[in-house]
Amino acid sequence: MVEEFVHIYVQKRVALDDILLMFIYLEVLAMVGQFVMNGKIPVRYPIYIAMMAIARYITLGMKELDSVMIVWLSLAAFILAAATLVIRVGHHYWPYIDNQTAEKDE
């Protein structure tokens, strides 16, 4: 991770692949921050990371990918987005109860 920042600093330019990789790093750091603060990792964060990785793969490999592969990757990203939506809605309507405090987790 630090190597990427040094690479950008040395080259004195930022490319699209660098920006997309920084978004993935941002999601990983957000996931680590959630774990440090709450002691648990929401399932949504790895899904966000996977969606960003798929988007990066499609964006950077657009010329080498055939149209069928792009459709399959787009479908995979859509399924991950739908799974995130289902998890969020399910958590809103049926929140789980924290065993330590016996209160609803918000």
Give your account of this protein's structure.
- There is one protein chain.
- It is flat and about 50 Å long.
- It has one domain (2-93).
- It has 106 residues and is an all-alpha fold.
- Helix 2 (16-38) packs antiparallel against helix 3.
- The chain has helices spanning 2-11, 16-38, 44-60, 67-93.
- The protein contains four helices and no strands.
Q: What characteristics describe this protein?
A:
106 residues, 73% helix, flat, mainly alpha, single chain, 4 helices
Quote the average pLDDT: 86
Distance between the ends? 32 Å
Radius of gyration: 18 Å
Structural class: mainly alpha
- Helical content band: over 70%
Main sheet properties: none
Order of helices and strands: HHHH
Strand proportion, as a percent range, falls in under 5%
In total, the number of strands is 0
Question: Count of helical segments?
Answer: 4
Query: What is the multimeric organization of the chains shown?
Result: single chain
The stretches of 5 or more residues where confidence is low (pLDDT under 50) are none
